[in-house]
Amino acid sequence: MIGRFIRGKWMRVALVTLPVLAACGQAPPAPEVAAVDDALWSPPPLVGEVGRLPDARDVVRRAIEFMSSHERLAFELVATYEVVQENGQKVEFDMLQRVALERPRRMYWATLNDDASTETAWCGDGQFTLVRQPTNTWGRVNVPLSLPAALSRIAHEYDVAVPFVDILSGDASELWIGDDVEWVDYIGEAWIQGHWTDHVALRRPGADIQLWFRADDEPFPVRMEIIRTNDDGQPAFSARFREWRTLVPDGTIPAFEPPQGSEQLEIVPSTGR
């Protein structure tokens, strides 16, 4: 174990000691890495005041204010979630989601599950519409006119996988740095997906959360990890965000048309199934 210094903070990290380290004091880049001409493999030097750590709450607040300042947002995320089996084993599933948001009226998203099934959803103006394939079915239900309230209802009452639902359907400041948050700390910088990020960890009743925000002029979330500490087996959810855009042209959200030959089904609350 050796110490790692990150803007004034020592952290203990485990390294495998190689003979070459003892010989020259620093391991040369592996040939297969050094030959890669790719920005993902070439982190630029960190810019900032050496020895001073950002305040974790300030990092979170800055990101929330930035995202809230844009009426239109589009992004993709790759999510992995755990499901606890009756015997206690946790199994993982993946999904890819593409999202377009137009505040304060409507949101559209498409989900590709790891079994190749898809869900396409429209939420806004008091209606929620969902198309499922390959079953070629669709349904529609009335929801509150308020977009946050509508998203919260379809996620919690209808058990629909709404992207970023805890943030889009509520107060992100209250969720991440509000009075219920028991602990929050700045962990350090991390190079993820071609960006330096600020890594923050927090604990609130029922959840341990880690967040990584871009450490630049566009502090979008890059990664999120959640452990549901009150649930049996403490299942985890993780997401990696990509392709963030604030310039979302008209027409990005397509108009709904029932798929050819599709069957309309009633959407019922999950508690009523």
Key terms:
twelve-stranded mixed beta sheet; two-stranded antiparallel ribbon; 2 domains; disordered N terminus; globular; alpha+beta; 273 residues; 6 helices; 16% helix; outer membrane lipoprotein receptor (LolB), chain A; single chain
Kindly describe this structure.
With 273 residues, the chain is an alpha+beta fold. The protein folds into two domains: 2-41, no CATH class; 56-115 and 149-251, outer membrane lipoprotein receptor (LolB), chain A (Clam). Helices cover 16% and strands 41% of the residues. The strands form two sheets. It has a twelve-stranded mixed β-sheet. A two-stranded antiparallel ribbon has the order 1-2. The chain is globular, with a radius of gyration of 22 Å. The chain starts with a strand and ends in a 9-residue tail after the last strand.
